[in-house]
Design goal:
The complex is a heterotrimer. Chain B is an alpha/beta fold. Chain B contains six helices and 17 strands. Chains in contact: A-B, A-C, B-C.
């Protein structure tokens, strides 16, 4: 039994300090992980779905490739989505395939919305990698984010948990949590501000005003905790380095776009007096990589259509959920995402109506009902690969185990080759 | 007048830039039939989807179930385009002149980046009506948009010049980051109107919750507004005498962005009650 | 195998200046002869040059990609369609990766250096370069604000480099990099201390016991000790600040006797007082450079029109943000560097912009040695690389230049010597130097930038045209590695380019020193930091450092 290094992509933290004990074709022990990480390694090593199925029937991969290629080259509005849980190499292959078939491609996962990508196109964005937040931030704000639950190792890694803040060698540090009720993260905090979710934008806007000494309407019926927010504004304005963490609670809601717009505007205002960065917490292991790969190949981070032979982007028009809810797509290729388990009902219903191809290492409800389903070798366990952490830092995924199966990237490349080959002939 | 009749609703979105009276005015029917449209990811021709009747000229009429047809009248510069029925996304986007009348509803992004002309929607409009293109600071730069039904979120985002009036209910963040121009909400107004507005006017005819960064300046009867409202009434929008004669509370904002804009809220018996 | 027949050949590295002759290619190299039945390319009446070499550009990595994400409006109107040989993409001031490779090739450029890669993001930069076809690419590794290096510099005895040389070598090997880049040494670290900066070479970097001068001289010395093919590549402190020419001079004097390349010199050539209107100090800097053969520069020409400012010099971006009031990206990279991005437009009527434009032209026209003052726009900072043909016309066509000068802000032009009606017109031979032979020599790329036997078969053939902008915009043929890539402005093939990386012998023991410094400051494991993935590093060509003078 040999000890091997591993990286966990169970969430956007990309913890690369994991040790695994390797036995006969299995991971005997995984150390250094959080519960989410344990689940991630478990589901990627659990008895995998068949390598290839067509209409639920096990077939050899080549036959499934043919069927998938036929469906996709026939489609006039194919959608390629998912992507946030696979690796950068597979994302590169996915964009190439989407282009070859004139598809709409949009990263969509269970916890991430395109709100940050869209909102940052209005003001821009000031951000930092984990190390600088860990070593420099005097004030950290978790705005409607509960990393203790969603990213269990994040606070310790940023030394923002109580123990980390107490540890010497660092400036006095304050953690402020803003949420509806006392979350587990709030228990770690010095300051907790109760705020109901529908007031996020109003509160962020109020802090902007308080930071800028701009008079505001103090009508108590508005329900804003103005005194607490005023204190927060003072802390942020006075600090030499601050960080604002926010998660899907702020971004992946009906008001997600304006909420993030409000937070980025605040960070922009603060730059006049302090060095404050925003850190969007990403739930999926490689949500950031999906945006990065799409951006370098097309110029756009999300919601891209190749229908007319070149990239065009329009959130709301080419976003996966909208495309499905409107019933535009006539075929779907879903990479590493249990769409039926996570999409809104109307979108999920349309997935059931159209021919669907699923590529991924896990047995999911979506894979079970798909026309074509590929069970792939999981990167990070059986395949080396790269993921981008939520802060954009690329980290390598290792392959402590071997598998004769194809990885996501191989399947996607094979489908593309099959289609382009036909074009050629 | 040339009439294009959609034979049946396309199964996937059909993109039809260029179907506007000014571009078709000088074409032969055969040329119009040969114009490119995009049937999803396939290049096709107008004739594959539309039956043509009448003669090309200043006027163009498009009929049928057009909910999946995008870019109708986009970029038109002159003439009159009538859409008999519901139209899809980007209707009248970037139009510079002429009149575009939709006898039904329009999808999202109608009149986005508009620079001139008039867009009339007799039904309801989707999100981003007269809004800004992704990444651009300024939205609509001129022209008029009148909606007889409701409108979705982000009406007139980044508005720089022009007039948008909606008879029914307007969604959230109307006038988001607007730079100038006028938005008139004859029906209800959703949450956070004028967020980040620098200049310009938003007019609300019923009570509305404002952001804390707006401040009550004064109450008066703005002369310019009477002119606008008479103009709207003449165009068949439901404007009451009370609205024309009434006095308005003037809230200045957005405080966090220059505070040169105003939200005018009608002070009526209803409002005060 | 190919014979390029009877073109007018400009190969300054081999003393050939417009001589009509054949150029023979075989096996991806320039050869003496090919059999008489070898395929022929008729170049009669055409101009033949080596493929272009861009010594300072920004084409790959997290900063470039953040700029792409920031500006969809910049891509919408400029698209690249998928074809049998091309992937699709978008353009604007910051094109997508595929479009970048195609457009460089369509301009006759076959080698490009990305001038600012954060080592922590090397995997990202390498992955983008793999999606940037045709051109051979190298990148320079940002080391001017690296905390572990600061520690080693502080520990080093005066007049010694201590362990710094080994550490620099380790970083280059760990990232697949080609050379060393210093950006506002010390200043970017200070930016993370409450948005501050350094303003002179002797400001102490708070709490770290080093000064910009110490960082400059120690790392420049280390680079010479390592015998790297390219000297230390310096983006001086105080970029864009009126009066910064003193800092630039101070930097050059500090580095006297050691090799150094100054990036985008135009942005560092301003007289006047901080906060006041800048003046031109191009003549003084041009003269100093002429007198110091160990030093070189690329100009960083500004061209009127849209640009995207993109730099590791984050405090400078904050100044630009306050000028435009528009979009702004800041991205702190732990322990190493920073990043700032602001979309920008240079206007000919604007005093400062016109002065910047004028200073760039002064540097070109006043420098006597084109081998050491070479062409760049610091793409996309001063302008897109797509504006090189227009810049070449400004240099070659005095009449055109004077028309353009007449249109620019009068006050600004009055602050330059351009009004003195500088007679100089660059010859085709000199253009070949500043766009090919010079950059290749400064980079130490022995197989690039010339057409001697053994050189890479990268060749650009232009149709003669008195309008030099036209001529250089649309090469007749572009050959890369012996393969015909471009014909009549059309892309015929788009093979992958090679990664150009340096090869150095160094003492692996340095890892014992680095690991503890590293664990303290980084959020990734030391063992995961070096890039090992073959799909990111291969295919690559190694250029050997000549440590202690001898090639190993």
């Amino acid at each position: 039994m040999a000890d091997r290094a591993a990286t966990c992509a169970g969430c956007g933290c990309g913890c690369d300090d994991i040790d695994v004990a390797v036995g006969a074709e299995a991971l005997e022990r995984v150390t250094g992980t959080c519960p989410l990480g344990d689940a991630w390694f478990a589901e990627r090593t659990a008895d995998p779905p068949p390598a290839a199925r067509v209409d639920g029937r096990e077939v050899d991969v080549a036959e499934a490739i043919d069927v998938a290629a036929a469906i996709l080259s026939e489609a006039r509005f194919p959608l390629l989505c998912g992507l946030t849980a696979t690796d950068c190499e597979s994302q590169r292959a996915a964009v190439a395939l989407a282009e070859a078939i004139g598809a709409v491609i949009d990263p969509v996962g269970p916890t991430d919305a395109g709100a940050t990508a869209a909102a940052s196109q209005a003001f821009g964005l000031s951000s930092a990698t984990f190390g600088d937040v860990r070593d420099r931030a005097e004030v950290a704000v978790a705005w409607r984010a509960d990393p203790v639950t969603t990213h269990p190792r994040l606070l310790p890694r940023l030394r923002l948990d109580r123990a980390g803040r107490a540890a010497g060698g660092h400036p006095a540090r304050t953690l402020v949590v803003i949420d509806a009720e006392r979350t587990e993260t709030a228990e770690e905090a010095d300051v907790f501000i109760a705020l109901s979710p529908e007031l996020d934008f109003e509160a962020l806007w109020a802090v902007r005003a308080l930071v800028g000494d701009i008079p505001i309407d103090r009508d108590p019926t508005a329900g804003l905790p103005l005194d607490a927010l005023g204190e927060l504004a003072g802390r942020l304005r006075a600090c030499s380095y601050g960080a604002m963490l926010y998660g899907s609670g702020l971004a992946a809601t009906a008001d997600g776009y304006v909420n993030v717009l409000g937070l980025l505007a605040l960070v922009r205002d603060l730059a006049a007096t302090a060095h404050v960065v925003a850190l969007p917490l990403r739930g999926d292991g490689n949500a950031r990589g999906a945006e990065d790969v799409l951006a370098w190949q097309t110029g756009y981070p999300s919601a891209v259509s190749f229908a007319r032979g070149h990239p065009r982007a329009q959130p709301g028009e080419f976003s996966a959920v909208d495309v499905l809810e409107r019933g535009d797509a006539d075929a779907a290729l879903i990479v590493g995402f249990d769409a039926l388990g996570h999409l809104p009902p109307r979108a999920a219903d349309h997935v059931r109506r159209i021919p669907t191809i699923v590529v991924g290492p896990r047995a999911t409800e979506t894979a079970a009902v798909a026309r074509v389903a590929f069970g792939t070798a999981a990167s990070g366990v059986y395949r080396e690969a790269t993921v981008h952490r939520m802060d954009g830092v690329p980290v390598p995924l290792h392959a402590p185990l071997t598998s004769s199966r194809a990885g996501d990237r191989d399947v996607l490349a094979a489908i593309a080759a099959r289609i382009v080959g036909e074009e050629g002939s | 007048m040339l009439t294009l009749t959609l034979r049946e609703q396309p199964t996937v979105p059909l993109e039809t830039e260029g179907l506007s009276p000014d571009r078709l005015a000088t074409c032969q029917r055969s040329e119009v039939e040969a114009l490119t449209v995009w049937d999803g990811n396939r290049r096709a021709q107008v004739g594959d989807f539309f039956a043509l009747s009448g003669e090309t000229g200043e006027e163009l009429r498009v009929e049928g179930d057009l909910r999946r047809v995008k870019f109708l009248g986009a970029g038109m510069t002159a003439g009159r385009l009538t859409i008999a029925g519901d139209a899809g996304m980007h209707t009248g986007a970037g139009m510079r002149g002429g009149e575009l009348v939709v006898e039904g509803a329009v999808g999202d992004f109608a009149g986005v980046g508009m620079r001139g002309g008039r867009l009339v929607v007799e039904g309801s409009a989707g999100h981003h009506l007269g809004g800004a293109r992704q990444g651009e600071r300024a939205g609509m730069r001129g022209g008029e948009i009148f909606v007889h039904g409701d409108a979705g979120d982000q009406v007139g985002a980044g508005l720089r010049r022009g007039l948008i009036a909606v008879a029914g209910r307007m969604g959230d963040v109307a006038g988001l980051r607007m730079l100038a121009g006028t938005i008139v909400a004859l029906g209800g107004l959703g949450a956070r109107p004028g967020a980040g507005m620098r200049r310009g006017s938003i007019v609300a005819m019923s009570p509305v919750t404002l952001l804390p960064t707006f401040a009550l300046a004064n109450t008066y009867r703005p002369p310019f507004l009477r002119l606008y409202l008479r103009h709207l009434r003449a165009l068949g929008l439901p404007v009451t005498d009370e609205q024309i004669e009434g006095s308005y509370a003037r809230w200045s904002g957005d405080g966090v962005d220059l505070r040169r804009g105003e939200i005018l809220v009608l002070e009526s018996e209803r409002a005060l009650a | 195998m190919l014979r390029i027949v009877q073109g007018r050949v400009y190969d300054p590295a081999n003393g050939i200046d417009g001589e009509v002759r054949d150029v023979c290619l075989d096996g991806g190299k320039v050869v003496e002869e090919v059999p008489s039945d070898a395929p022929r390319l008729d170049a009669r009446g055409m101009v033949v040059m080596p493929g272009g070499v861009d010594i300072h550009s920004h084409i790959a990595g997290p900063a470039v990609n953040a700029a792409r994400k920031l500006a969809p409006e910049d891509h919408r109107a400029d698209v690249v369609d998928r074809t049998a040989v091309m992937r699709s993409g978008t353009g604007g001031t910051v094109p997508s990766t595929f479009a970048t490779g195609y457009r460089y090739a369509l301009l006759g450029y076959t080698t490009v250096v990305d001038a600012a890669t954060p080592p922590l993001a090397a995997r990202h930069a390498l992955a983008e370069l793999r999606d940037t076809p045709i051109v051979d690419a190298a990148f320079l590794v940002l080391m001017g604000n690296n905390l572990p290096l600061f520690e080693l510099i502080r520990e080093a005895a005066p007049d010694s480099t201590g362990r710094v040389a080994e550490a620099v070598a380790w970083w280059l090997e760990a990232t697949g990099g080609y050379g060393v880049k210093l950006v506002n040494p010390g200043g970017v670290e200070m930016w993370k201390h409450g948005n501050r900066n350094v303003t002179s070479l002797d400001d102490e970097v708070e709490g770290l016991g080093v000064t910009p001068r110490r960082v400059l001289s120690t790392i420049a010395t280390a680079v010479d000790e390592l015998g790297l093919p390219h000297p230390v590549h310096v983006h001086c402190n105080n970029l864009g600040v009126a009066g910064n020419w003193h800092t630039t001079m101070d930097t050059l004097e500090t580095l006297e006797g050691r090799r150094a390349h100054l990036a985008h010199l135009q942005f560092h050539a301003y007289g006047g007082d901080p906060g006041k209107r800048p003046r031109s100090r191009a003549p003084e800097l041009a003269e100093h450079l002429d007198a110091h053969p160990e030093h070189s520069a690329d100009v960083g020409q500004v061209m009127f029109g849209p640009a995207t400012t993109m730099t590791a010099d984050a405090p400078v971006s904050a100044l630009l943000r306050d000028i435009t009031g528009g979009k702004w990206i800041n991205a702190d990279v732990e322990a190493e560097t920073g990043c700032g991005i602001v979309p920008f437009a240079y206007q000919e009527r604007n005093y400062v912009h016109a002065l910047q434009w004028g200073i760039g032209l002064e540097l070109f026209l006043l420098s006597r040695d084109p081998w050491r003052v070479v062409l760049s726009t610091d793409h996309p900072n001063g302008a897109s690389f797509l504006s090189y043909p227009r810049l070449i016309r400004l240099l070659m066509d005095r009449e055109f230049r004077n028309e353009e000068i007449a249109r620019a802000n009068k006050k600004a032009i009055g602050r330059t010597v351009l009004r003195d009606n500088l007679a100089r017109e660059y010859t085709l031979g000199e253009i070949a130097i500043v766009t090919r032979a010079g950059p290749a020599r400064l980079l130490g790329l022995a197989h690039k930038g010339h057409l001697g036997v053994g050189a890479d078969a990268d060749v650009t053939v232009y149709s003669e045209n008195p309008d030099r902008e036209e001529m250089f915009s649309r090469p007749r043929y572009v050959i890369k590695g012996g393969a015909l890539i471009v014909e009549d402005g059309e892309l015929r093939a788009a093979p992958a380019g090679d990664l150009l990386r340096v090869n150095i012998d160094f003492d692996r023991e340095i890892e014992r020193t680095l690991e503890p410094l590293f664990e303290e400051r980084y959020s990734v494991q030391f063992s995961n930091y070096p890039v090992r993935e073959p799909w990111l590093l291969e295919p690559a060509r190694r250029v050997h450092a000549r440590r202690g003078g001898s090639e190993r």
